[in-house]
Amino acid sequence: METANNQDTRRSKHGQGLSGITNCHPLRGYPVVVAGKGKRNRKWDRETPLGLVRRARRMNRTLATAFPHVYCELDFTNPLELTVATILSAQCTDKRVNLTTPALFREYPTALAYAQADRTELEEMIRPTGFYRNKANSLINLGQQLVTRFDGEVPDKLEDLVTLPGIGRKTANVVLGNAFDIPGITVDTHFGRLVRRWRWTAEEDPVKVEKVVGDLIERKEWTLLSHRVIFHGRRVCHARRPACGVCVLASDCPSFGEGPTDPLEAAALVRGPETEHLLALAGL
After folding, report:
1. Which has fewest Cβ within 10 Å: 38, 66, 75, 139?
2. pLDDT at 121 over 50
């Protein structure tokens, strides 16, 4: 017998007919749709925790085939350069940062150089990256902290990195994973958007996203996973029009169909140097 609560659910603003929201997934927190969206949604709603782990690891392996040569897209030669470049990348493209840093790194090769920098000159050098006053302040303070606390060297521990000016968990994990080869999950805009689209988690807070994904994927894979997801988000799984019709993850993606599913239409949306390889995997 249908209760009044169930009747209210059927009339929910979240759906039409029987597609209302009844509750949330016990582990990931996203709304569970009971009916009205067909077999595909019911498949994901019934996914067990073990099923999610298996799907997430399978998707990671698929991404490794799609992007066999992933890397940090910021140019650097040592931990200090990567730390500086990552700070500059806030609200700025990696391409723009890479155009700015060669001259910057020549002028400021050490932590002491940043600590003693002329603020006006430093601001002018990093102006193209935006928010240059705040970033200059972070870099000068970073240099001072590194000199006074760490003998001028970038530390290789998360708990130390996050105490430094301009460095949060995202920047710290970028530095750990790419400069020190210590596994870390980098939850940037692309990463958070995609793992929510894939229903790995519904969390919005980056720290919580990092924890959930860390429980799904083997630790040794964390840094490479971060790069693969970010590459996929930039090349294929765009925020507004994902290229669903040529996506290698289509069979494992609960959000398949958010973008065009026609292969030729979707192919036009793929970007980046891997385009030919990605389209070949899609049979084009």
Report:
1. 38
2. yes
DSSP 104: H
Q: Could you report the per-residue pLDDT of 145-185, keeping only the tens digit for each?
A: 999 999 999 999 999 999 999 999 999 999 999 999 999 99
Q: For residue 247, say whether it is annotated as part of any ligand binding site.
A: yes
- Among 83, 71, 253, 62, smallest CA distance to 242 is for 253
Enumerate domains of the chain plus CATH numbers.
4-46 (no CATH), 79-179 (1.10.340.30), 189-281 (1.10.1670.10)
Model pLDDT for residues 241-270, shown as the tens digit of each residue: 999 999 999 999 999 999 999 999 999 999
Question: pTM score, two decimals?
Answer: 0.79
Dist. CA 263–CA 265, nearest whole Å: 6
For the question of residue 43 being annotated catalytic, the response is no
Q: What is the mean pLDDT of residues 185-202?
A: 94
Q: Is 24 annotated as a binding residue?
A: no
- Concerning whether 37 is annotated as a catalytic residue, the answer is no
Is 237 one of the annotated binding-site residues? yes
pLDDT the model gives residue 44: 81
- The tokens of 198 are what? 């894939």
How many angstroms from the chain centroid is the CA of residue 75? Answer: 18
Distance CA(179)–CA(71), nearest Å, equals 11
- The b/e string for 42-63 (b: 16+ C-beta within 10 A; e otherwise) is eebbebeeeebeebbeebbebb
The single-letter code of the amino acid at 2 is E
